[in-house]
């Protein structure tokens, strides 16, 4: 209507249109069109003030002479906000997401069932996959009544909002669907379609089921039934590995056995409690994740442990059924389980949960070990980008005030704090996290407390303090900080070193010592090169004193008498930036 009005009434290339909504939910309707901007805005204001509209809008319409189409720009919008209409659901998305019993066996449906029935499944000590393949469990859930009804409601309410179907209709649908599923499973059990492995060979059953319509359902029921009565996930895993050993050697019969075993394993090892039971309840979260990586990639981890024996103290040994599973994962079996476990490790790394809540320094140790092991497996289980993203996210937790306070709490001196924060700078990843860690370190070494402690005469000798500062300054260069942060922190170490040398008169004491000239020059050049003192004022003073000593006739004579001492001195002179 607006377009027709413009074509009939508007002669100019620009005009203004006034739209109104009489009520908040009502659609916009064209009220008038004019070439006068002020008149359009005034009319809109009057309509709103006189309560003739709940909301008004003025648009500027410009005619494009090439396309002869109008371009619209909103000039004014006032009044009640527009009510968002409920999303229209396409026909192919409308209705329940699960139409028949078979739909409940898909991975997404099993995951949802695991969430809404989590408490009941934990009390029974089983997984969703077992519930869908064990008649006794289905009857037990059906008899509970309230548990099943609550689970159906948990599914129906959010699905109603998503697909636009009444909650009551969905509740009735899922009640009927659950009844059909339970009836199908119970009937199969009564007819003896799930034979016991006590009287049959697993391989023989797999060969006999080949070609049957519901072979996957029946084989899953057989495998699940073999776990009945076995308590504890470690014992259950051992039983599953026994069944994997007895599976057919190849072909479709082997896949018929290995697929349900893998689906069971994915659900069994998908929770923290189950995983802790399999790997060992004494392991904290960080050690559990390291053990999972070792189980998924034993060859890569063993190579790292062989290169660095300290890794053996951080990464637990995987034994028993977990080791049996690890051998199969290394051989390329259960690829879905390998991927699921690797992704679980990434999720835990990106979560806010501490890896070692009572040991901040130990958390950095285990995080470093995990970084090395996951990087070694990058390309096979995870991409390098995924690993880097996970550690960047975890590093955010390492530079928070709470973590840093816990990390430096055991330090009895500010020097210890500076060394700990230097290590923190080295181990965090990500530009922003590196910058945050650098700020913590910079605040530490520029504090009055740090300088006061380093200048205390009761502490170590001045030369020893200078060597400590030089070590920390060199360590900063290996932390991968930004150029500016590295320069600022390095200069701060240099300034503190200058104060320490001035207070202790280390260079003057060195020059007064009765040591031979080559030894004095060697000590001065090491100071000037940043080996035994931080670069900065101390290095410059040492360089000046070394040059002055070189020019003294007595020193030249002493060096001429010991030509073998000139070789090492030339290397030090080059390192100190002096011409040989």
Automatic annotation (TrEMBL):
Q: Which domain of life is it from?
A: Bacteria
The protein in question is named: Uncharacterized protein
Supply the source organism's classification: Bacteria, Pseudomonadati, Pseudomonadota, Alphaproteobacteria, Caulobacterales
């Amino acid at each position: 209507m607006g377009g027709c009005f413009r074509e009939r009434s508007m002669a100019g290339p620009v005009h203004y249109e006034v739209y109104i909504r009489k009520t908040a939910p009502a659609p916009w309707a064209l009220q008038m069109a004019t070439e006068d901007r002020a008149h359009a805005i005034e009319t809109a204001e009057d309509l709103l003030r006189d309560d003739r509209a709940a909301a008004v809008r003025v648009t500027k319409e410009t005619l494009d002479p090439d396309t002869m189409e109008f371009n619209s720009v909103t000039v004014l919008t006032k009044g009640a906000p527009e009510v968002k209409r409920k999303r229209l659901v396409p026909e192919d998305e409308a209705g329940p997401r699960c139409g028949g019993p078979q739909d409940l066996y898909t991975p997404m449906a099993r995951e949802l069932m695991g969430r809404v029935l989590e408490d009941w499944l934990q009390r029974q000590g089983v997984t969703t996959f077992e519930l869908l393949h064990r008649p006794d469990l289905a009857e037990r859930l059906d008899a509970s009544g309230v548990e099943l009804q609550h689970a159906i409601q948990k599914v129906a309410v959010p699905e109603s909002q998503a697909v636009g179907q009444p909650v009551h209709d969905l509740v009735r649908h899922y009640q009927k669907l659950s009844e059909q599923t339970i009836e199908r499973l119970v009937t199969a059990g009564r007819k003896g379609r799930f034979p016991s492995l006590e009287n049959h060979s697993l391989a023989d059953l797999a060969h006999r089921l080949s070609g049957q319509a519901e072979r996957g359902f029946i084989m899953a029921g057989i495998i699940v039934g073999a776990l009945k009565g076995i308590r504890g996930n470690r014992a259950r895993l051992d039983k599953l590995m026994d069944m994997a050993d007895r599976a057919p050697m190849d072909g479709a019969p082997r896949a018929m056995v290995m697929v349900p075993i893998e689906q069971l394993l994915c659900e069994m090892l998908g929770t923290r409690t189950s995983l802790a039971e399999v790997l060992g309840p004494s392991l904290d979260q960080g050690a559990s994740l390291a053990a999972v990586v070792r189980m998924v990639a034993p060859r890569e981890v063993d190579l790292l442990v062989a290169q660095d024996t300290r890794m053996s103290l951080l990464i637990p040994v995987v034994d028993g059924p977990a080791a049996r599973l690890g051998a199969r994962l290394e051989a390329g079996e259960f690829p879905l389980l390998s991927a699921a476990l690797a992704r679980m490790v990434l999720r835990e790394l990106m979560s806010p949960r501490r890896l070692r809540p009572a040991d901040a320094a130990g958390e950095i140790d285990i995080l470093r070990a995990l970084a090395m092991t996951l990087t070694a497996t990058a390309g096979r289980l995870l991409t390098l980008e995924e690993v880097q993203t996970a550690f960047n996210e975890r590093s955010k937790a390492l530079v928070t005030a709470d973590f840093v306070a816990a990390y430096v709490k055991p330090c009895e001196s500010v020097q210890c704090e500076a060394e700990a924060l230097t290590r923190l700078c080295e181990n965090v990843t990500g530009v922003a996290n590196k910058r945050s860690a650098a700020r913590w370190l910079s605040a530490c070494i520029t504090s009055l407390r740090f300088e006061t402690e380093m200048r205390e005469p009761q502490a170590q000798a001045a030369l020893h303090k200078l060597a400590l500062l030089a070590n920390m300054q060199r360590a900063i260069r290996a932390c991968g900080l930004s150029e500016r942060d590295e320069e600022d922190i390095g200069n701060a170490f240099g300034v503190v070193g200058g104060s320490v040398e001035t207070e202790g008169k280390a260079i003057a004491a060195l020059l007064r010592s009765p040591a031979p000239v080559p030894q004095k020059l060697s000590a001065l050049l090491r100071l000037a090169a940043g080996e035994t003192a931080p670069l900065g004022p101390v290095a410059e003073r040492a360089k000046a004193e070394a040059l002055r000593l070189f020019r003294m006739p007595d020193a030249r004579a002493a060096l001429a008498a010991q030509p073998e001492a000139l070789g090492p001195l030339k290397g030090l002179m080059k390192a100190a930036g002096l011409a040989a």
